[in-house]
Amino acid sequence: MKITNTMKEIILEGEKSNLIKISEDLSTITYINQNVTRNFNNPEEKIQAETFCQLVLRYNYPVEQVKLYVKVTVGSDTKEADIIVYNDNECKKPHIIVECKKVSINEQEFKQAVRQAYAYAFATAGTVKYIWVTSGIKNEYYEFDKEINSRESVTDIPQYKIKKLASYKYAKNGGVTEDGQKLSPLTKVEESELTNRFKQAHQALWGGGELNPSEAFDELDKLIFCKIYDEKKKRKNGEPYDFQIIKVEPKSKDKNDIEKANRETSENLLKRLVELYNEGKNIGERKNDTEIFREGIKLNAAKARTVVSYLESVDLLHTDLDSKGRAFETFMGSFFRGDFGQYFTPRNIVSFIVDSLPIDENDRVLDTSCGSGGFLLHALDKVRRAAREFYEWEEGEEETVECHNQWHDFAKYNLYGIEINEQISRTAKMNMIIHDDGHTNVVTSDGLISPCDLREKTGNREFKENSFDYIITNPPFGSTIKQTEKAYLHQYKLATKDVDWLNPNSKASDRPSQSTEVLFIEQAERYLREGGYLAIVIPDGILTNSSMQYIRDYISDTFRIVAIISMPQIAFSANGAGVKSSVMFLKKYSSNEKQLRIDVRNNIQNNLISNSDEGKHLFKLLKEKKESISQINKQLKQEKSSNDGEEIELLENRKQEVAEMYDEQIEDIREYLTDTYLEKYKNELKNYPIFMAIAEDIGYDATGKETGKNELPKISKELARFIQAIEAGDEHFF
Predict the structure, then answer these.
(1) Three-state secondary structure along 400-455?
(2) 485 burial class (0-12, 13-18, 19+ CB within 10 angstroms)?
(3) What string of H, E and C letters represents the secondary structure of 126-161?
């Protein structure tokens, strides 16, 4: 288990206070007061060390009254309680039983740990009053009464010499109750811990079979939204949060009353969550978003309480934006890969693309296949960082109205996304809300339907042709759309076979199918304004396969090729896709420039066919081939009527030989004419530099594990300079 920042803080404090000593290689830990050394590589040991330090440094128990690895006789067996806190220095009167488990423990295992702790409590002297079971990210506390065998849930264990517990644990900026109990502020956590909390909360929702993983994901989304909204609500210092377990006191210490109070605690929590959800969804631009808020919270009280137990202590609102985003995306990505077979763009590649482009708060940005919203969120973060830098904002400070409006208006009016999968689309919206919003213009639709049809389908009139400054996208690879499947396919030029200029007998016709990644290139042209940029992940086949020359011709006619960045084979391996890919940056030509290039192309081709010796010879060979084959076919017809099998076979062989002879000559001339055309086309038009790079190290390996080597930021920095030079009209960048 990785040590989180929160854990590091308390463990470092424990070392400074001479409570513990960790070896230089981090392999062992020594509890100094007991002179006991243990294996620190054991995941449970890390939790035990953290909990021990908390008991002394946060709960203020004298270290002499806190014992680890206490032998306990349970029936005929001798067990070992992780930690026992005593009421006396002689350690004769056990007060608190603590059971520590590893972070990755599941909900059923956690319940077993609770039963184990209760067994220890029953087996020790009758002075035990509290039980604490912890996995580091999930905590449950109980008030224990051996006589009635009750399981009264409480919100914390008492600090040293505190007689009365508060009904809640978390308050804004902490505080102290009238009875002297210190309340806890919410805590910012790092990416790995937050990812674990999301994953385990999700698993707890569907693990029992009451919900399927997809339903559980939706419900978790709703509660994360409630959590964010609760943290945003105005409240005074010391005022409790609503998104936490708040204990209902039992009328008496009767077992039935205790059980009733436990149920009411959960039921009241669910009521508060429903109120948060209904209140939060009706604020601002969220009010009319029936897609993301189409249903209320469907969890029962027990399930809702379980989720809250994983998230109540976390300061989601102020947890580092990048860490929060990565945690959500990591959890989300693993879920969707397992449940939907969806693959999202790795964060390093997303950052590289967005950082390379000069996006600012005035630009309209679109992702035509937005998935979970990664590109949009990075664009939002880029604009937010620029606003905060402009207004000299520092971490921990409140944003000025001007600073907030600069990036929030961009999120509200300038960010657009299209996602075909309904659940992923809702998730993208929620992902953006978690990041302070920008969900308004994310719509559920096929990204390949016409802009006009999209506007009619979604009611969003801002998906206009020729209106976006940037399109950043990673379209789905490998799937094809057939003419028989989608009526819109005929609207695409790249779904149509043009007349082959080297084959006078060819005719324009519909291609039976076309790959989605190719169609998304043409769709981008529709949405982009003249001079707008497209950054798109494409399979390398588009750049190299001879059969795809028509696609490259289309790109050359339509866009200035700004950059091609080759990604390593492993770029998408961790996400389940092994296609070799590149990132292509394109700048849309004006209509005049596009027509000029088409005219140049046609003039060169027509001139080569009509006026060059090779062109004339090509037509001569095609004519001779046709005549020769026709003559042989006539002879075959005659022989077939006479049924001379031997002569028929000879003629068939002759026909094949003639065809191959001419085809070889024809192909040689076609290759020559193609090469000549490409050279003349290149020379005829204005030459321009193209930024090209090969990224070998991109920060992770084929399994997704970080390598510490990432060339993308350096490439991005240089590419950004190159694009800046283009925009400034400087064609001498190199």
Answers:
(1) CHHHHHHHHHHHHHCEEEEECCHHHHHHHHHHHHHCCCCCCCEEECCCCCCHHHHH
(2) exposed
(3) CCCCEEEEECCCCEEEEECCCCCCCCEEECCCCCCC
Q: Around Cβ 316, how many Cβ atoms within 10 Å?
A: 22
pLDDT digits (tens, 9 = 90+) for 585-603: 999 999 999 999 989 988 9
Regarding the domain delimited by 1-147, which CATH topology (the fold level of the hierarchy) does it fall under?
tt1808, chain A (3.90.1570)
- Least confident range from 85-99, 364-378, 428-442: namely 428-442
* 538 Cβ contact partners less than 8 Å away, ≥ 6 residues apart: 517, 521, 581, 582, 583, 584
Is residue 529 within 8 Å of residue 579, measured between CB atoms?
no
- Determine contact, residues 215/345, Cβ cutoff 8 Å: no
Q: What are phi and psi of 563, to 5 degrees?
A: -155, 150
> How many C-beta atoms lie closer than 10 Å to residue 115's C-beta?
11
First to last CA, the chain: 48
How big is the CA angle at 555 (ends 553 and 561), to the nearest 5 degrees? 120
- Confirm if 372 and 431 have CB atoms less than 8 A apart: yes
Q: What is the mean pLDDT of residues 182-204?
A: 88
pTM for this model (two decimals): 0.79
625 phi, psi to nearest 5 deg: -60, -45
> Is residue 435 over pLDDT 80?
no
Q: What is the 3-state secondary structure (H, E, C) of 306-341?
A: HHHHHHCCECCCCCCHHHHHHHHHHHHHHHHHHHCC
CA distance 92 to 82: 17
CATH architecture for the domain at 341-589: 3-Layer(aba) Sandwich (3.40)
Q: How far is CA 562 from CA 22, 357, 487, 587, 705, in A?
A: 53, 11, 33, 7, 31
Q: What are 545-588's pLDDT values in tens digits?
A: 988 989 999 999 999 999 999 999 888 876 666 788 999 999 99
CA–CA dist 217, 202 (Å, integer): 6
What contacts 128, CB < 8 A, 6 or more positions away?
94, 95, 96, 97, 121, 144, 146
The answer to whether 466 and 558 have CB atoms below 8 angstroms apart is: no
CA 52/CA 66 separation, integer angstroms: 8
